[in-house]
Hints:
By secondary structure, this protein is an all-beta fold. The protein is built from no helices and eleven strands. Strands 2, 4, 5, 6, 9, 10 and 11 form a seven-stranded mixed β-sheet that branches. A four-stranded antiparallel β-sheet has the order 1-3-8-7, with no helix packed on it.
Amino acid sequence: QVQLVESGGGLVQPGGSLKLSCSASGFTFSRYSMSWYRQTPGNEREFVASISSIDRVTNYASSVKGRFAISRDNGKKTVSLQMNSLEPDDTAVYYCQSSYLNSWGQGTQVTVSA
């Protein structure tokens, strides 16, 4: 059974940082690319960042490039998203996604507010 479990969300002030983590199980983690998406109420889920399986090529949405960094630990079966210089527009539910069967986690809320 595929499971993706996100953690690390919370409330942070503008300009602050948060690190999200996603723990994976139920598939061969190292073989699949991983991504982060986010969604706000009334809007479609949008791409944030991705990292490929072996060579760890990363890709970012233009809105987060230079502020966010995605990484993965194939030994621990985790993917992380370091978020710096957070802005109120980064407020959303953040989801972890695997290219294995297009699997999704349950999401973690990130709120950027003073």
